[in-house]
Amino acid sequence: MATGPLTEAEYQHHVSAVWRVTIILSIVTVVEVVGAIFYPEGAPRIILNIFFIIMSLLKAFYIVAVFMHMKYEKRALQLTVLLPTLFLVWAIIAFLWEGGAWLNLRSVWF
Fold first, then answer.
1. Residues 60, 51: contact at Cβ < 8 Å?
2. How far is CA 28 from CA 17, 52, 88, in A?
3. pLDDT tens digit string along 67-96?
4. Is the CB of residue 25 less than 8 Å from the CB of residue 59?
5. FRET label pair with 2: which of 19, 28, 71, 90, CA 20 to 30 Å apart?
6. Crossing angle, helix 45-62 and helix 8-37, to 10 degrees?
7. How is 7-50 classified by DSSP, letter by letter?
């Protein structure tokens, strides 16, 4: 843990890291927009949805790692923050899956 002000080299390193991630996020966003605009009309939508999910996860990784400073934390704190988030995502997917099964059963029985 730093006890004093940053040196000029450390400051420049952090500034360049923020600019690098900002440029990466901008490029990913432009690729998403271009992909959405030029996606063929008759092509399956699931491909576009998977593309958006992957790009969104990529952007979320960079935002959490750099702008939320998770990249610079100890491994135990990273796992303490990120694992419950993964369990929450898993729970949402499981509840949606179960809800779809209940909807199918409802259409069979009622």
1. no
2. 17, 10, 25
3. 888 887 888 888 888 889 889 999 999 999
4. yes
5. 19
6. 170
7. PHHHHHHHHHHHHHHHHHHHHHHHHHHHHHHSS-TTS-HHHHHH
